[in-house]
Amino acid sequence: MSKIPSTIADYAVLPIAIPPTPAYQVKTTHHVYVRPHAPKLPTVDDSRSLFLVNVPVDSTSPHFRAVFASLVGAGRFESITFENERKNAPSSAVLAIEATRGKKRKRASEADVELDTGLPPTWDRALHKSGSTAVAVFADEKSAEAVLKAIKKLHKSGKGAFPVWGEGLTEKVPKLGSHRYLTHHKMQYPDPDLLRASVDAYMMEFNRKEEEASQKAKRMRNVPDEDGFVTVTRGGRSGPARRDDAETKRLELEEKEEKKRKEMGDFYRFQLRERRKEEQGELVKRFEEDRKRVDAMKEKRGKFRPEK
Protein backbone atom coordinates (compact mmCIF):
# COMPACT_ATOMS: atom_id res chain seq x y z
CA MET A 1 0.00 0.00 0.00
CA SER A 2 1.42 3.38 -1.02
CA LYS A 3 2.37 5.82 1.69
CA ILE A 4 0.07 8.79 2.29
CA PRO A 5 1.83 12.07 1.34
CA SER A 6 2.07 14.64 4.11
CA THR A 7 1.48 17.60 1.79
CA ILE A 8 -0.11 18.23 -1.61
CA ALA A 9 0.63 21.63 -3.15
CA ASP A 10 -0.05 24.16 -0.37
CA TYR A 11 -2.22 21.76 1.63
CA ALA A 12 -1.33 19.58 4.57
CA VAL A 13 -3.02 16.17 4.35
CA LEU A 14 -5.03 15.32 7.48
CA PRO A 15 -5.84 11.56 7.53
CA ILE A 16 -8.94 10.61 9.55
CA ALA A 17 -9.81 7.04 10.45
CA ILE A 18 -13.43 6.19 9.58
CA PRO A 19 -14.68 3.31 11.78
CA PRO A 20 -16.91 0.54 10.35
CA THR A 21 -20.65 1.19 10.17
CA PRO A 22 -23.62 -1.17 9.77
CA ALA A 23 -23.89 -0.03 6.14
CA TYR A 24 -20.15 -0.38 5.39
CA GLN A 25 -18.37 -2.72 7.78
CA VAL A 26 -14.84 -1.88 6.68
CA LYS A 27 -12.47 0.54 8.37
CA THR A 28 -11.17 3.17 5.96
CA THR A 29 -9.26 6.44 5.91
CA HIS A 30 -10.59 9.80 4.77
CA HIS A 31 -8.26 12.67 3.83
CA VAL A 32 -8.98 16.32 4.57
CA TYR A 33 -6.71 18.93 3.02
CA VAL A 34 -5.78 21.85 5.26
CA ARG A 35 -4.02 25.17 4.67
CA PRO A 36 -4.05 28.66 6.23
CA HIS A 37 -7.14 30.58 5.25
CA ALA A 38 -6.39 33.34 2.71
CA PRO A 39 -9.64 34.62 1.12
CA LYS A 40 -9.78 37.27 -1.59
CA LEU A 41 -11.55 39.59 0.85
CA PRO A 42 -9.49 39.51 4.05
CA THR A 43 -11.14 39.40 7.48
CA VAL A 44 -9.86 39.93 11.01
CA ASP A 45 -9.96 36.16 11.72
CA ASP A 46 -7.86 35.00 8.75
CA SER A 47 -4.64 34.66 10.75
CA ARG A 48 -6.28 32.20 13.17
CA SER A 49 -8.32 30.28 10.58
CA LEU A 50 -7.69 27.18 8.49
CA PHE A 51 -9.28 26.32 5.16
CA LEU A 52 -10.44 22.71 4.87
CA VAL A 53 -11.16 20.83 1.63
CA ASN A 54 -12.94 17.46 1.23
CA VAL A 55 -14.73 17.45 4.59
CA PRO A 56 -16.81 14.30 5.23
CA VAL A 57 -20.44 14.51 4.15
CA ASP A 58 -21.68 14.01 7.72
CA SER A 59 -19.41 16.69 9.22
CA THR A 60 -20.59 18.70 12.20
CA SER A 61 -18.93 21.15 14.54
CA PRO A 62 -18.62 18.51 17.33
CA HIS A 63 -16.86 16.18 14.89
CA PHE A 64 -14.11 18.67 14.12
CA ARG A 65 -13.93 19.82 17.72
CA ALA A 66 -13.08 16.24 18.67
CA VAL A 67 -10.57 15.89 15.79
CA PHE A 68 -8.67 19.07 16.67
CA ALA A 69 -8.82 18.29 20.37
CA SER A 70 -7.07 14.98 19.65
CA LEU A 71 -4.38 16.88 17.72
CA VAL A 72 -3.64 19.92 19.92
CA GLY A 73 -5.80 19.48 23.01
CA ALA A 74 -9.08 20.97 24.10
CA GLY A 75 -9.78 24.69 24.18
CA ARG A 76 -8.03 25.57 20.90
CA PHE A 77 -10.93 25.09 18.45
CA GLU A 78 -13.54 27.88 18.36
CA SER A 79 -15.96 27.38 15.45
CA ILE A 80 -16.35 26.06 11.91
CA THR A 81 -18.37 27.31 8.94
CA PHE A 82 -19.27 24.84 6.19
CA GLU A 83 -19.66 25.66 2.51
CA ASN A 84 -23.38 24.95 2.38
CA GLU A 85 -24.15 26.02 5.93
CA ARG A 86 -26.00 29.17 4.94
CA LYS A 87 -28.29 27.23 2.59
CA ASN A 88 -29.02 24.31 4.87
CA ALA A 89 -28.63 25.85 8.32
CA PRO A 90 -31.66 25.29 10.52
CA SER A 91 -33.89 28.24 11.23
CA SER A 92 -33.52 29.89 14.62
CA ALA A 93 -37.11 28.83 15.21
CA VAL A 94 -35.77 25.40 16.23
CA LEU A 95 -34.61 26.87 19.50
CA ALA A 96 -36.30 25.21 22.43
CA ILE A 97 -39.80 26.50 22.78
CA GLU A 98 -39.13 27.07 26.45
CA ALA A 99 -36.74 29.85 25.40
CA THR A 100 -39.58 31.73 23.74
CA ARG A 101 -42.23 31.14 26.36
CA GLY A 102 -42.57 33.51 29.29
CA LYS A 103 -40.40 36.17 27.63
CA LYS A 104 -41.69 39.49 26.44
CA ARG A 105 -40.91 39.65 22.74
CA LYS A 106 -39.86 42.96 21.26
CA ARG A 107 -42.21 44.55 18.82
CA ALA A 108 -40.95 44.52 15.25
CA SER A 109 -40.87 48.32 15.10
CA GLU A 110 -38.48 48.36 18.06
CA ALA A 111 -36.07 45.73 16.76
CA ASP A 112 -32.91 46.81 15.01
CA VAL A 113 -32.60 43.58 13.04
CA GLU A 114 -35.05 41.63 10.94
CA LEU A 115 -36.81 38.72 12.60
CA ASP A 116 -36.15 35.19 11.42
CA THR A 117 -39.29 34.40 9.45
CA GLY A 118 -38.31 30.88 8.37
CA LEU A 119 -40.50 27.88 9.05
CA PRO A 120 -39.35 25.16 11.46
CA PRO A 121 -36.85 22.76 9.82
CA THR A 122 -37.75 19.26 8.75
CA TRP A 123 -34.26 17.71 9.14
CA ASP A 124 -32.35 17.34 12.40
CA ARG A 125 -28.89 17.83 10.83
CA ALA A 126 -27.40 19.02 7.57
CA LEU A 127 -25.36 16.83 5.21
CA HIS A 128 -22.74 18.19 2.82
CA LYS A 129 -21.82 17.52 -0.77
CA SER A 130 -18.83 15.30 -1.39
CA GLY A 131 -15.65 17.40 -1.56
CA SER A 132 -17.15 20.37 0.28
CA THR A 133 -15.04 22.99 2.00
CA ALA A 134 -15.12 24.64 5.41
CA VAL A 135 -13.31 27.30 7.43
CA ALA A 136 -12.25 26.46 10.99
CA VAL A 137 -11.52 29.29 13.42
CA PHE A 138 -9.24 28.78 16.42
CA ALA A 139 -8.57 30.68 19.63
CA ASP A 140 -5.47 32.39 18.26
CA GLU A 141 -2.87 32.24 15.50
CA LYS A 142 -0.60 29.92 17.48
CA SER A 143 -3.40 27.38 17.81
CA ALA A 144 -3.89 27.30 14.02
CA GLU A 145 -0.14 26.83 13.52
CA ALA A 146 -0.10 24.06 16.13
CA VAL A 147 -2.75 22.14 14.16
CA LEU A 148 -0.60 22.24 11.01
CA LYS A 149 2.43 21.03 12.95
CA ALA A 150 0.39 18.24 14.56
CA ILE A 151 -0.78 17.06 11.12
CA LYS A 152 2.86 16.68 10.03
CA LYS A 153 3.62 14.59 13.14
CA LEU A 154 0.71 12.25 12.32
CA HIS A 155 2.48 10.97 9.22
CA LYS A 156 5.62 10.20 11.24
CA SER A 157 3.81 8.44 14.09
CA GLY A 158 1.95 5.95 11.86
CA LYS A 159 -1.56 4.95 10.85
CA GLY A 160 -2.69 4.01 14.34
CA ALA A 161 -2.40 7.60 15.54
CA PHE A 162 -4.97 9.02 13.13
CA PRO A 163 -7.97 10.77 14.73
CA VAL A 164 -11.05 8.54 14.75
CA TRP A 165 -14.10 10.15 13.16
CA GLY A 166 -17.06 10.51 15.50
CA GLU A 167 -15.34 8.92 18.48
CA GLY A 168 -17.23 9.75 21.67
CA LEU A 169 -19.99 11.66 19.85
CA THR A 170 -22.73 9.03 19.89
CA GLU A 171 -25.01 11.12 22.11
CA LYS A 172 -23.85 14.54 20.87
CA VAL A 173 -24.94 14.46 17.22
CA PRO A 174 -28.17 13.14 15.63
CA LYS A 175 -27.99 9.65 14.21
CA LEU A 176 -27.99 8.83 10.52
CA GLY A 177 -29.53 5.93 8.62
CA SER A 178 -33.15 4.95 9.23
CA HIS A 179 -33.24 7.01 12.43
CA ARG A 180 -32.63 10.16 10.36
CA TYR A 181 -35.65 9.50 8.15
CA LEU A 182 -37.91 8.60 11.07
CA THR A 183 -36.95 11.90 12.68
CA HIS A 184 -37.58 13.70 9.39
CA HIS A 185 -41.09 12.24 9.26
CA LYS A 186 -41.83 13.48 12.79
CA MET A 187 -40.37 16.96 12.14
CA GLN A 188 -42.74 17.44 9.22
CA TYR A 189 -45.46 17.93 11.85
CA PRO A 190 -43.96 20.57 14.18
CA ASP A 191 -45.25 21.60 17.58
CA PRO A 192 -48.23 23.98 17.15
CA ASP A 193 -46.67 26.56 19.48
CA LEU A 194 -43.42 26.50 17.51
CA LEU A 195 -45.28 26.84 14.20
CA ARG A 196 -47.38 29.69 15.61
CA ALA A 197 -44.22 31.49 16.75
CA SER A 198 -42.77 31.25 13.22
CA VAL A 199 -45.97 32.57 11.63
CA ASP A 200 -46.19 35.40 14.18
CA ALA A 201 -42.59 36.39 13.45
CA TYR A 202 -43.35 36.44 9.71
CA MET A 203 -46.44 38.62 10.17
CA MET A 204 -44.61 41.02 12.49
CA GLU A 205 -41.86 41.48 9.93
CA PHE A 206 -44.42 41.89 7.14
CA ASN A 207 -46.32 44.55 9.10
CA ARG A 208 -43.10 46.39 9.88
CA LYS A 209 -42.15 46.61 6.21
CA GLU A 210 -45.68 47.70 5.29
CA GLU A 211 -45.50 50.49 7.88
CA GLU A 212 -42.14 51.64 6.52
CA ALA A 213 -43.57 51.74 2.99
CA SER A 214 -46.59 53.73 4.22
CA GLN A 215 -44.41 56.28 6.01
CA LYS A 216 -42.24 56.69 2.92
CA ALA A 217 -45.32 57.26 0.76
CA LYS A 218 -46.51 59.99 3.15
CA ARG A 219 -43.15 61.73 2.96
CA MET A 220 -43.13 61.58 -0.84
CA ARG A 221 -46.68 63.00 -1.10
CA ASN A 222 -45.55 66.60 -0.59
CA VAL A 223 -42.18 66.46 -2.37
CA PRO A 224 -41.92 67.17 -6.12
CA ASP A 225 -39.35 65.05 -7.96
CA GLU A 226 -36.50 66.40 -10.12
CA ASP A 227 -38.82 66.86 -13.10
CA GLY A 228 -41.29 68.83 -11.03
CA PHE A 229 -43.86 66.06 -10.82
CA VAL A 230 -45.64 65.18 -7.61
CA THR A 231 -46.12 61.56 -6.54
CA VAL A 232 -49.82 60.80 -6.29
CA THR A 233 -50.59 58.52 -3.35
CA ARG A 234 -53.85 57.19 -2.02
CA GLY A 235 -55.07 57.88 1.50
CA GLY A 236 -53.97 60.33 4.17
CA ARG A 237 -55.29 63.74 5.13
CA SER A 238 -52.48 65.89 3.81
CA GLY A 239 -52.98 66.94 0.21
CA PRO A 240 -50.48 67.08 -2.63
CA ALA A 241 -47.89 69.80 -3.07
CA ARG A 242 -49.13 73.23 -4.14
CA ARG A 243 -49.13 74.08 -7.84
CA ASP A 244 -46.88 77.13 -7.41
CA ASP A 245 -44.26 75.00 -5.60
CA ALA A 246 -44.21 72.53 -8.46
CA GLU A 247 -43.98 75.36 -11.01
CA THR A 248 -41.10 76.96 -9.12
CA LYS A 249 -39.30 73.65 -9.06
CA ARG A 250 -39.82 73.21 -12.80
CA LEU A 251 -38.42 76.67 -13.58
CA GLU A 252 -35.39 76.00 -11.42
CA LEU A 253 -34.68 72.80 -13.28
CA GLU A 254 -35.07 74.50 -16.66
CA GLU A 255 -32.64 77.23 -15.65
CA LYS A 256 -30.21 74.63 -14.43
CA GLU A 257 -30.39 72.71 -17.70
CA GLU A 258 -29.97 75.88 -19.77
CA LYS A 259 -26.95 76.92 -17.75
CA LYS A 260 -25.48 73.49 -18.20
CA ARG A 261 -25.95 73.61 -21.98
CA LYS A 262 -24.25 77.00 -22.16
CA GLU A 263 -21.33 75.82 -20.09
CA MET A 264 -20.87 72.68 -22.13
CA GLY A 265 -21.31 74.32 -25.53
CA ASP A 266 -20.10 72.17 -28.41
CA PHE A 267 -18.26 69.64 -26.37
CA TYR A 268 -17.56 66.99 -29.01
CA ARG A 269 -15.28 67.44 -32.03
CA PHE A 270 -17.93 66.45 -34.53
CA GLN A 271 -20.13 69.21 -33.10
CA LEU A 272 -17.33 71.75 -33.71
CA ARG A 273 -16.91 70.53 -37.30
CA GLU A 274 -20.62 70.70 -37.98
CA ARG A 275 -20.82 74.21 -36.58
CA ARG A 276 -17.88 75.36 -38.75
CA LYS A 277 -19.48 73.84 -41.84
CA GLU A 278 -22.71 75.67 -41.08
CA GLU A 279 -20.85 78.96 -40.64
CA GLN A 280 -18.91 78.48 -43.90
CA GLY A 281 -22.10 77.61 -45.74
CA GLU A 282 -23.75 80.73 -44.37
CA LEU A 283 -20.80 82.89 -45.53
CA VAL A 284 -20.86 81.35 -49.03
CA LYS A 285 -24.60 81.92 -49.23
CA ARG A 286 -24.24 85.58 -48.25
CA PHE A 287 -21.36 86.02 -50.70
CA GLU A 288 -23.44 84.62 -53.56
CA GLU A 289 -26.33 86.88 -52.64
CA ASP A 290 -24.03 89.92 -52.54
CA ARG A 291 -22.43 88.97 -55.86
CA LYS A 292 -25.81 88.61 -57.54
CA ARG A 293 -26.85 91.96 -56.11
CA VAL A 294 -23.67 93.64 -57.49
CA ASP A 295 -24.11 92.00 -60.90
CA ALA A 296 -27.67 93.22 -61.02
CA MET A 297 -26.55 96.77 -60.19
CA LYS A 298 -23.83 96.62 -62.88
CA GLU A 299 -26.30 95.38 -65.44
CA LYS A 300 -28.70 98.11 -64.55
CA ARG A 301 -25.96 100.74 -64.73
CA GLY A 302 -24.88 99.51 -68.20
CA LYS A 303 -28.36 100.01 -69.65
CA PHE A 304 -28.56 103.58 -68.35
CA ARG A 305 -27.92 106.24 -71.03
CA PRO A 306 -27.81 109.78 -69.76
CA GLU A 307 -29.37 112.45 -72.03
CA LYS A 308 -27.00 114.63 -74.05
UniProtKB/TrEMBL annotation:
Q: Provide the Ribosomal RNA-processing protein 7 C-terminal domain boundaries.
A: 188-307
Where composition is biased (Basic and acidic residues), the residues are 241-260
Renumbered to this chain, region (Disordered) spans 227-260
Source domain of life is: Eukaryota
Q: Which residues form the Rrp7 RRM-like N-terminal domain?
A: 9-184
Q: Set out the biological process GO terms recorded for this chain's protein.
A: ribosomal small subunit assembly; rRNA processing
Which Pfam families does the record cross-reference, listed alphabetically? Answer: RRM_Rrp7, RRP7
Q: List the InterPro entries hit by this protein, alphabetically.
A: RRM_Rrp7 (IPR040447), RRP7 (IPR040446), RRP7_C (IPR024326)
Q: Which GO terms describe its cellular component?
A: CURI complex; UTP-C complex
Q: Which family does it belong to?
A: Belongs to the RRP7 family.
Q: What is this protein called?
A: Ribosomal RNA-processing protein 7
